[in-house]
Structures are given as structure tokens and as C-alpha cells.
Amino acid sequence: MVRFSEPCSTGNVAALKRIHMRSKVDKAAWIYVPMFSLGHWYLMLVDVKHLKLIYLDSYRISNDLENKKLNMIDVQALYLESLTLGQSWLSRPLAERPKFSRFEFEFEFPTVVALEGRMKLATDLVLRNHNPLSRDVVLKAIRHWRSKEMVSQPVRRAL
């Protein structure tokens, strides 16, 4: 997974475009940026159409909201702008590149997050091909569940 807090090499940028960009940045409706802070994952959702940076978090910590906001605007949005420099990110020669750092900031806190939604997000983050440890995670999970099966099965004694 490419972390937006580190500079991308030319190869990483090419891979980002090839694997993850379904459309040019000026035609994208949404850009999803998973973020990690203080041992917790949250999501920055870039709503390109409505010019918004949206903070989504099921576990909100009020004393850290301002830091996350600053990180999203001052670091990540500016980094997205620098990352998308150049004509290859745009749909046509005179298209305007989005100025992510000027987007309006918005907090959104889901009132109820369905368990299946959390599980799908967790599964996608862990098992998708962007995670080099996904195979290792699957193998460890299989071993774990097999060990649980062994413990939960009653011992049968020969008569």
C-alpha cells in the first residue's frame, strides 16, 4: 500500500494510475484515502464533484479531531495536488486540475455502522492486492481457526 505521507517514486505513481485510477482526476467523483493516526484507521473521502474533504470515522476521539483535520488539509490534500501534476492525470488538454487543499472540510460521523460494512471494509483493506502481507494474513487466519476447531471438538473415546 502506498502511504501518502511518503514521497512516491515514478514507478509507484505509474502503478497508482494503472491499478487504482478508474478515471482521470478531473472526472473522478470520489477519491478514497485511508489514513492512520495514533493506532487508528480512518478515511478521508475526497468528493471531487462537490469540492469537499470528508472525514469519516466510526471511532471519533474529540481531542484529536483538529490534528486529523490539519493532517487531511495541510498534508494529504496538498500531496494529492502535487501527485496529480501533469497532463497525464487529466482527461483533456485544457481540463482544470482539482485544487484539493481548497476544498471545504466536513466531519461525518456514522450513527450506526453495520457489522457487515465494517467487515467488508476490513476484508478489503487486508486482503486486496495492494497489501503485500495479505497472503500471510490468510495463512495465519486459517491456522488460527483450525486450532480453534481442534479445541472446540469434543474428544471421542473408543468404547
From TrEMBL:
UniProt entry keywords in alphabetical sequence: Hydrolase, Membrane, Protease, Transmembrane, Transmembrane helix
Source species, domain of life: Eukaryota
Pfam family, one: Peptidase_C48
SUPFAM superfamilies in alphabetical order: Cysteine proteinases
Spans through the membrane: 29-46
Record InterPro entries: Papain-like_cys_pep_sf (IPR038765), Peptidase_C48_C (IPR003653)
Domain (Ubiquitin-like protease family profile): residue spans on this chain: 24-85
Protein name: Ubiquitin-like protease family profile domain-containing protein
Family, per entry: Belongs to the peptidase C48 family.
Stored Gene3D superfamilies: Adenoviral Proteinase, Chain A
